[in-house]
Specification:
The complex is a heterodimer of chains A (about 90) and B (about 500).
Chain A (H helix, E strand, L loop, with lengths): L1 H7 L20 H12 L6 H15 L4 H22 L6
Helix pairs in contact in A: 2-3, 3-4
Chain B lengths: L1 H11 L2 H19 L5 H8 L8 H18 L1 H7 L8 H12 L3 H34 L4 H13 L9 H15 L2 E2 L6 E2 L13 H19 L19 H22 L6 H15 L11 H25 L5 H12 L6 H6 L1 H24 L1 H7 L4 H20 L2 H20 L4 H23 L11 H24 L1
Antiparallel strand pairs in B: 1-2
The chains are: A mainly alpha (about 90), B mainly alpha (about 500).
């Protein structure tokens, strides 16, 4: 560990060359608000329909068309319910 | 010893354990190959799944993800100039120029073979060095453990990537969060605000899922998105020629050595290792001018060192309970879920399991190389999956995984809060390694320090009379003051 610390001290200061992106916080606020509402409603209306609606809206916020959003949301919800509720016997509310 | 080795190997050779290992490697390869998903995120969001299966199967899956994701992170680095994981940053420097020069297949091959070499060397280091280190660790009493934990925490200044003050503040936040819950000595509730759910403290796994899963998604959402570059034409040959092997081998092996050492340092992972190794390789090379323009030696050094950091990180984590990087920190949580406490006692009480872990890592390294070489073209296509689908999947897995750990909505809110904090930290440039170190090492330091003080009837100077504890205390002071002094001198 001491040898590793000595090696880390030799780290060169080289700027990363991968793409840099400008920040735009307001873009994320609707998604954060939607997730907060989804969590606040935990236990109401059944896990599958609530999650399906949440994911479809989230994907639409991410820029997906509503038809594709519904299809992808249905597939993801079915996958999670199958894995956790039926596979691992977790009670999802 | 031989019996333990055979027992450990026997546990790995069960068909269901191998199946979980293979599933982990495939998931890891996907997480690594997709820009935006990282090894840490994969291990974090899938740790809750291992709660319901045996330790061998669970560790097989998580080690498969860990060992599979780091090499695969080199795929988008090489093909698209976008590091799939932070550890593959240095792979872009020579990998992408090789792709632009029409040698994409060879770059992928070197990345995969360099990764295999790095992982094998570091696993060998783990197998050879771990038992003597753990045997030495068995001599530790509360004072030595307190000193070791303090030393681990003090390293947060040195591995903060130049952000010394921010790193130390993040570490302090981790330490503060670690005090929530029942006092380890008196069982007095601290900072629980009357909530019984907080008596056990802040759940570690949801915090990690939030910081590295949801936090990363939110951080990418706030970044103005650019179009993902399209893949170019045919990959071409993947396997290097004998001459190329001879050129690369010394650089790859040196990278593996550097990566293993750097990986063993708390919170210094493959990203730091690969940058250091690439630079050392450039300095040692006769073809310095070629570095950054498609040098196979540079790519081999970067790939081997970023992967060798895995074995180094696992050595620190398993022998002393101090994580070398973020995925190994989450693996501590996974081991605790199965009632296993990393540290010297693991090597005394669960020796066959230690060998199981070593064989699982070796199996994961080999499987990853096979998948990387045979499935290079498929993995190259995976890099084109739209980000928005990945983000939605990570958010969903993060929420359900956090809930499933204890069937607790509080854990989900903890994950949500940690996700917001993680996104904020990324925006402000605050390193998260120190926070994780503080969160993990805080309870270890507090309980051992208080035990040591009880044994010495409150006499603080007794800590200075124990040579190992004194060594760690001095090393901690040097570790904290060194980077601060260097930063001041630079100004």
């Amino acid at each position: 560990m001491a040898a590793g610390v000595a090696v880390v001290r030799t780290r060169p200061r080289r700027p990363p060359r991968h793409r840099a992106a400008a920040s735009n916080v307001p873009d994320a606020l609707p998604s954060i608000a939607l997730l907060a509402v989804y969590l606040a409603l935990w236990g109401f209306g059944g896990f599958a329909p609530r999650t399906l609606l949440f994911l479809a809206l989230l994907l639409m916020l991410f820029g997906e068309t509503w038809k594709r959003s519904l299809v992808y949301a249905a597939i993801m919800t079915a996958g999670v319910v199958a894995a956790f509720q039926y596979g691992l016997r977790v009670t999802l509310q | 010893m031989t019996g333990d080795i055979l027992q450990g190997l026997g546990a790995v050779l069960q068909w269901d354990v191998l199946l979980f290992l293979l599933a982990g490697v495939i998931l890891g390869a996907i997480f690594g190959a997709l820009p935006g998903l990282t090894a840490t995120m994969g291990v974090a969001v899938l740790t809750p799944l291992t709660f319901w299966i045996s330790a061998e199967k669970g560790l097989g899956m998580l080690l498969g993800i860990y060992c599979g994701a780091i090499p695969s992170g080199g795929i988008p680095a090489v093909l698209l100039n976008i590091p799939g994981t932070p550890a593959s940053i240095a792979a872009t420097w020579d990998g992408y120029p090789l792709t632009r020069g029409g040698r994409a297949g060879l770059a992928l091959g070197v990345n995969t073979l360099g990764s295999l070499a790095g992982q094998c060397v570091s696993i060998l280091f783990l197998a050879v060095a771990a038992f003597p280190i753990a045997a030495f660790g068995l001599r530790f009493g509360p004072a030595e453990y307190a000193g070791l934990a303090l030393f681990g925490i003090s390293l947060m200044a040195g591995v903060s990537g130049g952000q010394v003050v921010k790193g130390m503040l993040a570490g302090m936040l981790g330490l503060a969060l670690a005090t929530i819950g029942l006092d380890p000595m008196t069982a007095f509730p601290r900072y629980v605000f009357g909530r019984s759910e907080l008596l056990d403290g802040i759940a570690f796994v949801p915090v990690m899922i939030g910081l590295f899963g949801l936090g990363e998604v939110l951080s990418q959402l706030t970044a103005r998105q650019q179009e993902k570059p399209k893949l170019g034409g045919a990959l071409g040959r993947i396997w290097p020629t004998l001459t190329e092997w001879k050129r690369m081998a010394p650089h790859g092996l040196a990278g593996a050595g550097i990566g293993t050492l750097v990986g063993a340092v708390p919170a210094a992972g493959g990203d730091i290792a690969s940058v250091i190794s690439w630079e050392q390789s450039r300095r040692a090379s006769k073809n310095k001018a070629e570095f950054g323009h498609g040098a196979l030696e540079g790519l081999a050094a970067a790939a081997s060192s970023s992967n060798a950091a895995i074995g180094g990180a696992m050595t620190s984590m398993l022998t002393l309970g101090i994580p070398g990087d973020a995925p190994s920190a989450i693996l501590i949580g996974a081991l605790l879920i199965h009632g296993l406490q990393p540290g010297p006692l693991l090597f005394r009480d669960h020796r066959p399991l230690v060998f199981t872990i070593i064989f699982l890592m070796l199996g994961a390294a080999i499987l990853t190389a096979v998948i990387g070489l045979a499935g290079a073209r498929v993995l190259a296509r995976i890099t084109q999956v739209p980000d928005r689908l990945l983000w939605a999947g990570v958010v969903l897995l993060g929420v359900v995984g956090s809930y499933a750990l204890n069937n607790s909505v509080v854990d989900v809110w903890v994950m949500f809060a940690a996700g917001l904090a993680g996104a904020g930290f990324r925006r402000l440039g605050v390193p998260m390694g120190p926070l994780v170190l503080g969160l993990i090492l805080g309870p270890m330091m507090e309980s051992n320090l208080r035990r040591a003080l009880i044994l010495s009837r409150g006499e603080w100077t007794s800590l200075l009379t124990k040579p190992i504890a004194l060594f760690f205390l001095v090393a901690s002071v040097v570790s904290i003051l060194g980077p601060l002094w260097r930063a001041r001198a630079r100004r």
